[in-house]
Amino acid sequence: xxxxxxxxILALLLxxxxxxxxxTLAPDALIERMQAGGLVVYWRHAATxxxxxxxxxxxxxxxxxxxxxxxxxxxxxxxxxxxxxxxxIPVEQVLTSEFCRNWxxxxxxFGDYEIRTxxxxxxxxxxxxxxxxxxxxxxxxxxxxxxxxxQNIVVVGxxxxxxxxxxVEIEEAEMxxxxxxxxxxxxxxxxxxxxxxxx
Length: 199
Fold this sequence. Notes:
The chain is α/β, with parallel strands linked by helices. It has helices spanning 2-20, 27-36, 71-86, 100-110, 128-142, 159-166, and strands at 40-44, 91-96, 114-115, 152-157, 175-179, 186-191. Strands 3-2-4-1-5-6 form a 6-stranded mixed sheet.
């Protein structure tokens, strides 16, 4: 009896997992789709030095009080930039949070970027209204297509913001690729830096 119930629960979980991932593309197919443009790539900042966390955010231009990229993170950012070049993935605009780990990720990958305050790291904010503004702001970005439909927009942000805005969780340096749509942004799939390595 217990084994039967356990089997039924596992079957339901597998169905739920398959449903949640239905329609997502494998890395090769996703890269090919990105080459065609019209998408929003949400990139969680590259790997960070976990020996200390953010402790002084009074001056966002001062990286000393923040958790910053590790050596591996800088390598990941460069790897992604080279991958975009290698696969000729067009980028119209790169938007980033003002945290040093985010704009440095954008810098090492693409060079040019634009800092947007509405991409601020959600856990730091205690005011409920401000938190909702950040979540709605990100939803807006995910569902705003590039001006040129043959280009893509890259947004370098934080994990919790994406979880609240789109119910998607990614690790450091991972990318979630969205297609703007009238019914809301559609997740096409996710990529790791290694997925953009030369084949």
